[in-house]
Amino acid sequence: MNLTQEDWVSQFETDENAVILDVRTEAEFNEGIIANAINIDIHLGQGFISEIEALDKTKNYYVYCRSGMRSAKACEIMNELGFENAYNLVGGIIEWDGEVVAP
């Protein structure tokens, strides 16, 4: 499900079951992240799927990348793997107005 930054943040902030997931490359991740994000690079192919499958399906995942394209794909994959709540940040981190921190 695609969410604007405003909706993504307001929903995340009130969600006690939330996990922020960054699906960019390790190099991109190291340039700065949304606070408390975990990194699983979507370009890892089967490695990405294996790492995603190991996650807790009862949690709610707030997913982002650089522009919102890879994270939208990641949300589709997560839905196919049985994750009911994966939320894509439309516009990605390049349109992010909030704080960006070092990983």
TrEMBL record:
Residues 14-102 form the Rhodanese domain. InterPro entries: GlpE_sulfurtransferase, Rhodanese-like_dom, Rhodanese-like_dom_sf. Transmembrane segments: none annotated. It comes from the Bacteria. This is Rhodanese-like domain-containing protein. It comes from Flavobacterium yafengii.
